Amino acid sequence: MQHGAAWLGLVSGAKLWHVAAPHLPRPSNRECEHNGRIDYVTAKAEGVEHCLMLPGETIWVPDNWWHATCNLDPYTIGLGGQLWLPGQEKNFALRSERPPIEWTPSYGPEVCA
After folding, report:
1. 55, 12 in Cβ contact below 8 A?
2. Do the domain assignments include residue 94?
3. Cys bridge to 76: 32, 38, 58, 71, which one at CB 3.0-4.6 A?
């Protein structure tokens, strides 16, 4: 998948990342079969690099980098976010197709003053 820059901090578990630069053709899909074993021949041919993420580590994925992940533990918990880039609508539902978000803060403006 490609999208705007993203980051993820891992709280528990282990996560295997497959990443490739955006100028390369889209790599083949990565699956979490065989406990995350890596096909190094295919990865090298496609320019895919790997890293193993452990609790307490944070990863930054730049704009439009190809990436896929595989959770290696039964419970893998992380916290992260991503930036939205104009033109990325093809990867996500169009805004007109999303239900409207209605939100009323439970605090007043004095909390932020």
Report:
1. yes
2. no
3. 71
- Extract the tokens encoding 109: 């403006």
In sequence order, what are the beta bridge partners of 82? 6
Measured distance CA(22)–CA(29) in Å, rounded: 15
Q: Within a domain: residue 92?
A: no
Provide the terminal-to-terminal Cα distance of the chain, rounded to the nearest Å: 40
Q: pLDDT (tens digit, 9 = 90+) per residue, 4-46?
A: 788 999 999 999 999 999 999 988 888 777 767 888 898 899 9
Range of the domain at 57: 6-85
For residue 99, is it within any domain?
no
pLDDT digits (tens, 9 = 90+) for 79-111: 998 877 666 555 555 555 555 556 565 555 555
Alpha helices (H) in 1-113, listed in sequence order: 40-46
User: Is 49 inside a domain boundary?
Assistant: yes
Total domains present in the chain: 1
